[in-house]
Target: Universal stress protein
Amino acid sequence: MKKILFPTDFSDASKNAFIYALKLADSIDAEIITMHVYQFPKVNYVNVSEYLHEIYDVTELSNFENYKDEVPILRNIAEENNLDKVKISHVLILGNLIDEIQKILKHENIDFIVMGTKGATSLKETFLGTVATKVMNDVKAIVLAIPEHCKYQPIKNLLFITEYKPEDIEPFMRVKALAKVFQAHIDCLRVQSPHHENKNDYMEDWNELSKGHNIALHSISGDDVEGIILNFVDSYKINMIAMHVYHKNFFEKLFQISLSKKLAFHVNVPILAIHE
Model:
């Protein structure tokens, strides 16, 4: 059975993302492992050592109580969406979230990480906003980030952002397999600078990969990469964006698009990040 890891902080954004995790699990016959990671509070008082054990006990107890209260809520979400047949297990861990995700990836054969993220206005100061981008960058897994205000809809139009290079082919094949599960159309999009010369064009290979499938290949020239992507998402009614993680800070740049662009797609379109 496939496995989906679902890191959660029990926020509304996280609960909203849980619906996507359930739908994905149902589609690919997977189980879900929910994961809540907490840390001890930083204590700055002088001579606090005699109280430290008591503080930690209270912290552990409160985290356990919170987790115990939240688990039935996740189960209710599954029942409300007629997905209570999906197997769900729960993990409560003391530690650093990224480190603990890395550990669980080693011990369990995790196929996807699904998590919520918050909007651009509060990205830097929100737990899930900063963590989602860090997970996308640092964790070598397929990560599906679900924006806070994204209401679930069937995945019918999937956008794969690419440079049509050989190194994009393996991630593309994963997207292709997922699209088959969802019976979705794939639009592949390359955004190129008008001044860029394409010395190595592998379009013939990509045309061959797409032949006989519900796939369209696009190339658009322009300097405003993010703006072009946003307009494409809106025009083609895209309901999931997939991309190969090339650059360590790419997602931070993408998530911090100016609100003046009006179409901050991370607010309403899920993003699938695929590592090399």
